[in-house]
Amino acid sequence: MQILGHFNYWIFIVLMMCGFYMVIASDNLIKKLVGLSIFQTSVFILYISMGKIIGGTAPIVIDKAAVYSNPLPHVLILTAIVVGVATTSLGLALVVRIQEAYGTIEADEILAQDRDDSP
Amino acid sequence: MIAHLPALQVVIPLISAPLCALLPAGRPAWLAAMAASWLAFLIAALLLYQVLAHGPISYLMGGWPIPWGIEYRVDALNAYMLLIVAAIGAAVASFGRTIVEQRLSLPLNKHPWFYTAYLLCLTGLLGITVTGDAFNVFVFLEISALSSYVLISVGRDRRALVAAYQYLIMGTVGATFILIGIGLLYVMTGTLNMGDLAARLPAVSGTRTVRAAFAFLTVGTAIKLALFPLHLWLPNAYAYAPSPVTAFLAATATKVAIYVMLRFFFTVFGVKFSFETMQLDKILLPLSLVGIASASLVAIFQTNVKRMLAYSSVAQIGYMMLGVSLVSVTGLTASISHLFNHALMKGTLFMALGCVSYRVGATRLERMAGVGRSMPWTMGAFVIGGLSLIGVPLTAGFVSKWYLIVGALEKGWWPVAALVLATSLLAVIYIGRVVEVAYFKPAPEGQRVEEAPLALLVPTWALALANLYFGLETSLNVGVARLAAQGLLGATP
Amino acid sequence: MKRYTIPRVGTKLLLPLILLFALYVQFHGDYGPGGGFQAGVIFGAGFILYALIYGLDNARRLMPPWVLRIGVSLGVLIYAGVGLLGPLLGGQYLDYAVLDARDPAHGQHLGILWVELGVGITVSSVMVTIFYAFAGRGR
C-alpha cells in the first residue's frame, strides 16, 4: 500500500531518471534537450503532487466545499513551466545556430571539428 | 524612497531591461544600461551603509506578511554581495561602447538586446542575493542563467555557441536540482521563507526527505558555482564569451552561487545540521583541495590566456570552498572576503585581456608577444591583477589568502596551509608565463599595436587600483566579511 | 497550403474564436482559472496557426516584428510600472491595495487586472517572436 500510495512520487523518480539519462547518454544535441525537458517536467509532477490534499477540490472559492487543494505549488510550478519553455526554446535556438556553424548536431562530430582547428 | 531600496535594487535593472530593447541601437541603449548599472551600484552602497548602521533590513513585497509574502531580507552578507555584484556591473557597463559592440556576433539593430540580456543577468544576480524567499532564489537564478547563456553565445568564435549550449545543459540540471531541493523542503515544512524554514527545519531534520533535499541543494549549487569536479562547463564558457561578458560573469555569477550555498547551509539548514549531522565539510575539503591543485596545474598548460584564467577561476573557487570547509569564523571570513577580492582581481585581469584582444585581435599566448612594451598601461593593470591573484603582499589577494592560512593553522591543518602556499607558486608560473611573453619576447615583425583607448583603460585601472587599495585598507572587504561570517555562524561579535 | 481549401477556411472560422477565447481567459482570470500566461499563449497560438496556414510573409504583414518588439517590452514595463505605483502611493512595492484609497480589495483587483494584462501582452508577443525566429531561419 505504501508503494501505491506514493504512486506520483515513483513516477517523478522514474521520469527524472529517464530524462537525466538522456541528457548524459545521448550525443545528439536535440535529444539532450528532449531529455532535459523530461527532467524538468518530472519536477512539475513532484510539485503538483504535493499540492494535492485528499478530498480537496480545485482551489476556486465556492459555497459548498470546505477543503481546497493547496494552490501555492501550482503557482510556483507555473513559473517553473515558463522557465522550462524559455530554456527549451533558447536551447533549440542555440542548436539551430550550431547546425549553421558546424553543419552537424552530433556532439562528437562537433568536438572533432573543434579539435582540428584548435587551440 | 529610502525604505524601498531593497525592492528598487532589483526593480531598476528590471525596468531598464525592456526599456533598452525599445531604445534605438548605439548610444541610447548603452547609456541606459550604464545608468541603470551605476544606479544599482549606488543603491547597493546605500544598503550596505544602512545595514552597517542599523542592522538587517526586512522588506515585505506587496505588504504581505511573512511567511505568506515574499520577503527581501538584507543583512551584512547580502549587502556585501550586492555591493560586489553591482560594483562589477557598473565597471563592466562603463567599458567603451564601440569596443563592446565590435566583439559581438550580432547585426547592429540587435545590439540593444545585448544590453537587455546584460541587465536581466544583473537583475537576476542582484535578486538572488537580496531575496529571503527560497523559491524566489530559483526564479532569479534562472533569470540570470538564461540571460548569461545568451550573453556567452554572442561571442564571435563559433565555439561560443557550443560553450553556451553546454552551460545551458549543466546550468539547467543544477537549477532543477535546486528546485527539487526547495520542493522537498516545502513538503516537510510548508513554508518558503528562509527565516521560517530555519525555524521549522530542526523539528523534521531527522527525516530522509530533508536529507534528500540537502543533497539536491548541495549538488545543484555545486554545479552552479563550478566546484571541482562539476566545473567542466566553465572554461569554455569563459574562454569564448565576449571579453566584457567574461569579466562580468567571472566576477559575479559563481560568487552569487557560492552565496546561495552559504545561505542554505548556514542560515536555512543551520551549522549543526550541515556540518555535524551531514558532515558536509568532509566532502568539501578534499574536493576543494583537489580542485585547487588540479585546476592550477591545468592552467599552466593553456595556450589561450582567457582559458588559462578560467581554470584559475576554478582554483580560486576551491580556495573559497576550502574556507567554508574550515567552519570557523576565520575560515569563513577568508572565503567571504575572497569573494570580494577575487571579483576585483578577475575583473581586472579579464578587462585587461579585453583591451589586449581589442588591439591584438586574439588572446592566444603567442600573439601577446611584445604587448608589454606597446601597451604599457594595459599590461600594467594585468600585472597588478596577476600579483593580486598570486597573493603578493599589499594586494587584495594577499589579504584573503592570509586569513585562509591562519584559519587552516588554527585548526592545526598545516598540510592544508602548505598546499595553499604551494598552489600560489603555481599561480606565479602561469601569470609569469604571460608576463614573460608580453614583456620579454620581441613583437612579431610588422605588428604595430597601439595602447588601448581611454574608454577601456579607465574602468580597467579603476579595478586595478581597487586591488591595491583593498590590500592596504581592509576595513570594508575583511571587516564586513568578518561581520557576515559571525552572522552565519551565529557567533556574537 | 494554397491548394488546401479546408484548412484555409477552417482557419478563417477558428481564428476569431481563438482570439475571443484568449480574451475570455485573460479577463476571466480575475474570477476563475485563467490569466495572462494562458491567455497569452492562446492568443499567440492563434497567430501561429495563421502563419502556418497562410505563410510567414502574410503573418508578418498582419503582426509586424516591430509591433512584437514593443509588445515584448511593454508587458514587462506595465507589470513593473504598476508595481512601482505602490511605493509612489505610500505602500510597498507590488502593493496593489493602495491603488484605491477607499476600497483596498478593489485596489487589489485593479492591480491584478493590469498585471495580468502586462503578462498577457508579453507572453503572446514572445510566443509569436519565438515562432518567427525559428520559422524565418534559413529562408
Write the layout of secondary structure elements.
The complex is a heterotrimer of chains A (119), B (493) and C (139).
Chain A: H1 2-5, H2 7-25, H3 29-51, H4 72-102, H5 107-116
Helix pairs in contact in A: 2-3, 3-4
Chain B: H1 5-22, H2 27-54, E1 57-60, E2 71-74, H3 76-93, H4 97-102, H5 111-130, H6 134-153, H7 159-189, H8 194-204, H9 208-224, H10 234-240, H11 243-268, H12 271-277, H13 280-300, H14 305-326, H15 329-360, H16 371-374, H17 376-390, H18 396-410, H19 414-440, H20 454-472, H21 475-489
Antiparallel strand pairs in B: 1-2
Helix pairs in contact in B: 1-2, 1-5, 2-3, 2-5, 3-5, 3-11, 3-15, 3-21, 5-6, 5-11, 6-7, 6-11, 7-8, 7-9, 7-10, 9-11, 10-11, 10-14, 11-14, 11-15, 13-14, 13-19, 14-15, 14-18, 14-19, 15-17, 15-18, 15-20, 15-21, 17-19, 17-20, 18-19, 18-20
Chain C: H1 5-28, H2 36-54, H3 56-62, H4 65-88, H5 104-135
In short:
Chain B has helices at 5-22, 27-54, 76-93, 97-102, 111-130, 134-153, 159-189, 194-204, 208-224, 234-240, 243-268, 271-277, 280-300, 305-326, 329-360, 371-374, 376-390, 396-410, 414-440, 454-472, 475-489; strands at 57-60, 71-74.
Keywords, please?
heterotrimer; B: 493 residues; mainly alpha; 2 domains; two-stranded antiparallel sheet; 21 helices; 77% helix; globular; C: 139 residues; 5 helices; 76% helix; elongated
- For the secondary structure, the number of strands of chain A is 0
Helix content of chain A: over 70%
Count structural domains of chain C.
Answer: 1
What are the segments of chain C in which pLDDT stays under 50 over at least 5 consecutive residues?
none
The Cα radius of gyration of chain C reads 18 Å
CATH topology of chain A: Helix Hairpins
> What level of helicity do the residues of chain C show?
over 70%
Helix tally of chain A equals 5
Distance from N terminus to C terminus of chain A (CA atoms, Å) equals 59 Å
C-alpha geometry of chain A: elongated
| CA-based shape of chain C | elongated
The helix/strand order of chain C is: HHHHH
N-to-C series of helices and strands of chain A: HHHHH
Oligomer: heterotrimer
Instruction: Look at the structure and give the mean pLDDT of chain A.
Output: 86
Structural class determined from secondary elements of chain A:
mainly alpha
Assess the beta-strand content of chain C as a share of residues.
under 5%
The CATH architecture of chain A can be given as Orthogonal Bundle
Whole-number total of structural domains of chain A: 1
Mean pLDDT over all positions of chain C: 88
